[in-house]
Amino acid sequence: MNDDDVSYDLVSRPRRLRSTPAMRRFVAETRVDPSDLILPVFVKEGLREPQPLSSMPGVVQHSMDSLQRAAAEAVELGLGGFMLFGVPETRDAVGSAALDPDGILNRGIRAVREEVGDDVVVMSDLCLDEFTDHGHCGVLDAQGRVDNDRTLEIYGRMGVAQAEAGAHMLGPSGMMDGQVGVIRAALDAAGHEDVSILAYTAKYSSAFYGPFREAVDSTLTGDRKTYQMDPANRREALLELQTDLDEGADMVMVKPAMSYLDILREVADASPVPVSAYQISGEYAMIEAASANGWIDREAAIRESVLSIKRAGADSILTYYATELARWLRQDNGR
């Protein structure tokens, strides 16, 4: 018997369904659509032109004009959401600029709503870290610890200010106990029952937030380990999920995404509401650095990384690649 005579009685041949690009598209179990994507953006007070970020090539701090252009582009590309972060010129111990109707974030929300109306979900980060001179997500007590309950009172007022500026959805990211319930109550009391809450349910204390600190001109001293989740913990994420649901969360989030796909899968399996995940700054920066050095195929890595987040259970994905990926997806579909 020679090699040409060798045969096997194989009934199952999974490779049949991988034989051509058309076949692979036909049987694909997971698909990403532009409407699944949320673009996080930074608007900085005092800028006349967008300012590039050295640690996140391709990402900028926006001026008000460029912010509106980015929002219009998000609508044109069919993105699902547009998440705003504000970077003020002045900060204080209690983050006063976060409550100012004319503060940078609230002005940015109004400008985006004027530009796009209801054509994309306008989302706003609800946290104090960009607005405090110490860089923490809440106010500090006399011992320098984050005071959970004093912070909640400010979060409630922030929520109302952002709703009045025009945000469709608020994203409380500070990981304070009770934040969703307090914000929900404040919104309802102010007549904003239709404004929804995307709870940062499982936000871990991660090493991958580094480039974000540049994006918001962070003044953080110390760390956030007393309020963000310990990366070692899995069951705690389900406790946080149940708490946020009980407090009225309309959607929930896992952050970061790529290092926590196991958590994302468990949250998605347990959640009765839509689930988001945030591909954060450090995850973006790693792909950019590796591709710049020629170590990976940039487009293939971007596509695969976002697909993996969708496959793990995310209904929507915050990613700095949202607009670029949406263009590729439209090209794939001949649009």
Describe the structure in your own words.
The chain is 38% helix and 16% strand. With 335 residues, it is of the alpha/beta class. It has one domain: Aldolase class I (TIM Barrel, Alpha-Beta Barrel), CATH 3.20.20.70. The protein has an 8-stranded parallel barrel, surrounded by 9 helices. β5, α4 and β6 (169-172) form a beta-alpha-beta unit.
Task: Give a short synopsis of this structure.
The protein is an alpha/beta fold and about 325 residues long. It has 11 helices and 10 strands.
Q: CATH superfamily, please?
A: Aldolase class I
Number of domains: 1
Treating each run of at least 4 consecutive H or I residues as one helix, how many helices? 11
Task: State the end-to-end distance.
Answer: 54 Å
Q: Sketch the topology as an H/E string, one letter per element.
A: HEEEHEHEHEHEHHEHEHHEH
Order of strands, widest sheet: 1-4-5-6-7-8-9-10
GO cellular component, one term: cytosol
Active site: 203, 255
Binding site for Mg(2+): 240
Subunit structure: Homooctamer.
Using brief descriptors, characterize the structure shown:
heme biosynthesis; lyase; single chain; 38% helix; TIM Barrel; alpha/beta; eight-stranded parallel β-barrel; 11 helices; 16% strand; 335 residues
Explain the layout of strands and helices.
Elements: H1 21-27, E1 37-44, E2 51-52, E3 60-62, H2 64-77, E4 81-87, H3 104-116, E5 121-126, H4 148-165, E6 169-172, H5 179-189, E7 196-203, H6 210-215, H7 235-246, E8 251-255, H8 261-270, E9 275-279, H9 281-292, H10 298-311, E10 316-319, H11 322-332
Parallel strand pairs: 1-3, 1-4, 1-10, 4-5, 5-6, 6-7, 7-8, 8-9, 9-10
Antiparallel strand pairs: 2-3
